[in-house]
Design goal:
The complex is a heterotetramer of chains A (78), B (245), C (234) and D (358). Chain A has 78 residues and is an alpha+beta fold. Chain A is 23% helix and 18% strand. Chain A has one domain (4-77): Alpha-Beta Plaits (2-Layer Sandwich). Chain A is globular, with a radius of gyration of 12 Å. Chain D has 13 helices and 15 strands. Classes of the chains: A alpha+beta (78), B alpha/beta (245), C alpha/beta (234), D alpha/beta (358).
């Protein structure tokens, strides 16, 4: 099964809780500002992601999703 | 187990007004997930408090009422007494529930009203700007306890879960937290259990959730979850305090 | 027919059955026939229209009226005058205890058990079939058993007090009489008397009744009405 | 069903049931506790619901919650209790929920006393709670009228999505009068699907409903308040009720009085008539909206020298009477409170001396 880890950068408030709890240290806070004026989290090392969803669990803003349907997300990203 | 993760249906698309790292968002999501999973969206009525979660009604996609400060348990009582078929929950903070609404919550719990209360304890008044709450920790600085909570003058923080579990009326009373992923998993289970007790018409249920307020605590979100863990959790012990027989 | 009642008489009944008005008029009636009368206001539950409102008038007639101390007369407090137990221990010709309404109103009697112990008394239930909860025989019997339970005493008679105050018709009085007659039969409690408002008296054929009639000169009236003036006892 | 003899408080409770309201939350307070006592027996007989709340504050929100999910609901209290409910009244009005409140007034301020009074006129008609809200206020003068007003109150509350208050004084609650319950005043609750939080399944709707009184933007809040004002203006056009008494003669004085006080005034007017001293009366049955036009017209009669507001309060309604008369005639006040109800004789003396001075 193939999974996708997506951070909706405009939903993200850059609180960094996901960065703190990621067991693989995949995430970091970006230097680029989002439309709301926050510096969002991003996957600095996506290859290390094990899709454990710990970051999703901790995110207060439901900004992170994990999908197994690649096509759905391709559409959403447009 | 599926590894996918997405926003629950009961949560609206709106971005919340909460500060970065505020754990209200996590608790909202858990409640929404539970209502999704139980399939009760069409008969659920939520009650928003006065406090930071005053706009909670914007973030859910089912019927909602907005209460005055502390009065949510009375409104929930009103609904459940005239429409016992509805699933009703109040979402209240520590100023709302443990201070101005103490009378309402104790009597609702003692009557065994069959609704669910999600009680968010972050040891401070959020909405009004960081004043001392009944649950503020000893020596914790707030805008109305600038030298730290002086327990000799204002007493010790109130432990709501313990207080309510002292009532003889059967109920489900538990304290959970969302400051660590493993706590979040447990908190969701507790919230689900609380709603299930309600659906079965068994008892009043309350889930106290130890959470954070980085902005008013003057900490970063990550420092805040650590402060909650180190300072609050030893005092506010997690666990089930009362389970109906 | 004379009303045959003396000694300790407790007037009980449901809320608004007319206990107080009956008590006042019974007191006056007995006083007129030369019997010493004292009356105690035991109504601790009703805030308005109590015996205490007509204390002055009854005192003028030479009737002893026991009410709570003057300063508490209009208080929202359940005050039981200590004089009451004394008056029970040494009753006069007719000692009337005007109890409060329903089972709640007679609770106080249980508190007087020590004084009443071993004494002979009559506890009588006032019934107005135009009142809710006592508009059926069944309702009256239920009220009776609730009163007996709360007071720990036994009811041994009935007073028929059928009325719609100013709107009472002759027909209402006759129907009310038939009702209490039936109640008396089913409960096996004697019908002690029925009441008729003074103004209606001329239109009533009292030979229709097989019990005494107490004429009611209404005293407990709202402020825009005048009470029926009671002539002094000679 | 024929007439029954009922205490005002019992009749009020029964009237709500007959109107189709089977939900009652309350907290005991003299002189209206008989409503709760009556309904605690009666509600189980009709499959209704009675709950004694922990305080009047809580009770007002029980009403709010129940009403907000679309059910008919009412409560009764007396002055100090209504003060506590005023917070809820403000929220319920702001959230536009229908509910019926009965205030059997006792003397105040503070604990005051338990005897009849009309001291809550301002509280009822001018608001009591915070913000720009109004209650539709009806004042019965007899037990029968209390029954009819309670029964009318439910459809009115639903028509305006606003609380309706029945303002009676202690005597209305405590006295006994024969009553009849008119069948034609019974009414079914209206459909509330467009706003009530009755559960989406109940409405078979995909859209959720939200009941709230919070408006964060000033523009929205102003708009909301203008909407409320438009409702209150509509009440002023459509709901004014009053009784004229002895108004077809050339009266020297016009009395304005309501509730128990108006019955004393009627006796006074009748007695004065025997002396050929003519006095007219307007008895407001709605206190908000106040019958301004009727009072103004009655005051304008050539023969009328003076308008007297007679109240069991220290001069509250007189302010509305003055507003209505707009300086056309001198307006005076007479009143007593705390249970000391003026007698017909006192009222006669007052009228005579005020007419003489005018």
């Amino acid at each position: 099964m193939e999974y996708r880890h997506i951070i909706d950068s405009d939903r993200c408030k850059g609180c960094g809780l996901c960065v703190d709890v990621c067991p693989q240290k995949v995430l970091e806070i970006s230097c680029e500002i989002n439309t709301k004026g926050y510096f969002p989290a991003y996957q600095a090392r996506p290859e290390d992601c094990i899709f454990c969803a710990t970051c999703c669990l901790m995110c207060p803003d439901v900004a992170i999703t994990i999908s197994e349907n690649v096509h759905d997300f391709a559409e959403q990203e447009i | 187990m599926s590894k996918t993760f997405k926003k629950p249906e009961c949560l609206s698309d709106l971005h919340t007004h909460y500060c970065p790292g505020c754990t209200h968002g996590i608790i909202h999501r858990l409640v929404a997930e539970v209502i999704d999973e139980l399939g009760i969206k069409g008969r659920t009525v939520g009650i928003a408090p006065v406090g930071c979660a005053v706009l909670a009604y914007n973030y859910f996609t089912f019927d909602f009422q907005e209460a005055a400060h502390g009065r949510a348990p009375a409104m929930a009582t009103g609904i459940k007494r005239v429409r016992p078929d509805l699933i009703v929950f109040t979402y209240q903070g520590d100023g709302d529930l443990a201070s101005i609404g103490m009378g309402e919550i104790i009597h609702a719990a003692n009557r065994g009203e069959k609704f669910t209360t999600i009680f968010v304890n972050n040891a401070v008044y959020g909405m009004t700007g960081g004043q001392m709450a009944p649950t503020t920790m000893p020596d914790q600085r707030t805008t109305t306890s600038p030298f730290g909570r002086n327990v000799k003058e204002v007493g010790m923080p109130i432990k709501i879960a313990e207080l309510l579990s002292a009532l003889e009326t059967p109920g489900y009373i538990t304290r959970q937290s969302v400051v660590k992923p493993k706590y979040i998993v447990r908190a969701k289970k507790a919230i689900k259990k609380a709603f299930q007790y309600q659906i079965e018409g068994r008892c009043f249920s309350l889930v106290e959730v130890v959470s954070t307020c980085p902005t008013n605590w003057g900490l970063t979100p990550v420092q805040a979850i650590k402060w909650a863990e180190e300072t609050m959790l030893p005092y506010y012990k997690l666990g089930e305090f009362k389970v109906p027989e | 027919m004379e009303i045959d009642l003396d000694g300790i008489v407790i007037i009980a009944g449901n809320y608004g059955s007319g206990k107080t008005e009956v008590s006042i008029n019974l007191a006056v009636n007995k006083k007129r026939s030369g019997i010493d009368v004292c009356i105690a206001d035991l109504d601790l539950v009703n805030p308005y229209f109590r015996t205490r409102e007509v204390k002055g008038l009854l005192s003028e007639l030479g009737i002893d009226v026991i009410v709570p101390p003057e300063k508490y007369l209009q208080a929202d407090l359940p005050i039981l005058s200590p004089v009451i137990s004394g008056m029970i221990r040494q009753p006069c010709g007719l000692t009337l205890l005007d109890a409060g309404g329903d089972d709640v109103g007679v609770n106080v009697l249980a508190a007087l058990a020590d004084s009443l112990g071993g004494k002979k008394y009559n506890m009588i239930q006032v019934v107005n079939p135009f009142r809710p909860f006592t508009d059926t025989v069944k309702g009256c019997l239920k009220m009776r058993s609730e009163i007996e339970k709360a007071s720990k005493m036994t009811i041994n008679g009935i007073i028929g007090n059928a009325n719609l105050i100013d709107e009472t018709s002759v027909e209402d009085i006759y129907n009310g009489y038939d009702f209490v007659k039936q109640l008396s039969k089913e409960s096996r409690l004697p019908l002690r008397f029925v009441t008729v408002a003074a103004a209606l008296m001329p239109d009533i054929d009292t030979t229709r009744f097989h019990c005494p009639v107490l004429q009611i000169e209404r005293q407990l009236v709202p402020p825009w009405k005048r009470a029926v003036s009671i002539k002094p006892v000679i | 069903m024929g007439k029954v003899l009922m205490k005002g408080n019992e009749a009020i409770g029964e009237a709500a049931i007959r109107a189709g309201c089977l939900n009652y939350f309350a907290y005991p307070i003299t002189p209206q506790s008989e409503v709760a006592e009556y309904l605690s027996r009666r509600m189980p007989e009709v499959g209704g619901m009675f709950l004694q709340g922990e305080s009047e504050v809580a009770v007002s929100y029980m009403l709010f919650g129940a009403s907000a999910c679309g059910e008919r609901v009412f409560t009764t209290s007396s002055s100090p209790g209504v003060s506590l409910m005023s917070e809820g009244l403000s929220y319920i009005s702001g959230a536009q929920c229908p509910a019926v409140f009965v205030n059997i007034m006792r003397g105040g301020p503070g604990l005051g006393g338990i005897l009849p009074s009309q001291g809550d006129y301002f509280q009822a008609t001018k608001g009591g709670g915070h913000g720009d809200y109004r209650l539709l206020v009806m004042a019965p003068a007899s037990v029968q009228e209390a029954v009819e007003m309670v029964m009318t109150a439910f459809p009115l509350a639903e028509k305006y999505r606003n609380p309706v208050m029945i303002l009676g004084d202690g005597l209305i609650g405590q006295m006994m009068e024969p009553v009849e319950f008119p069948d034609d005043l019974a009414s079914e609750p209206v459909n509330k699907d467009d706003w009530a939080t009755s559960g989406m399944d109940t409405r078979k709707s995909e859209n959720r409903n939200l009941v709230k009184s919070l408006y964060l933007s000033s523009e929205e809040l102003n708009k909301h308040n203008l909407h409320l004002k438009a409702k209150y203006d509509r009440m002023r056009r459509e709901e004014i009720r009053y009784e004229k008494y002895n108004i077809d003669c050339d009266y020297k004085a016009l009395i304005v009085s309501y509730g128990t006080m108006s019955r004393v005034c009627k006796t006074a007017i009748d007695n004065l008539k025997k002396e050929d001293f003519k006095v007219g009366m307007i008895r407001p049955q709605t206190l908000f909206p106040f019958p301004e036009k009727a009072v103004n017209e009655a005051a304008s009669k050539n023969s009328c020298k003076i308008v007297i507001s007679i109240e069991m309060s220290m001069g509250q309604m007189v302010e509305d009477v003055e507003r209505a008369v707009i300086g056309k005639r001198p307006v005076r006040w007479y009143g007593k409170c705390g249970g000391d109800v003026p007698t017909p004789e006192e009222v006669i003396d007052v009228i005579k001396s005020m007419v003489k001075e005018a």
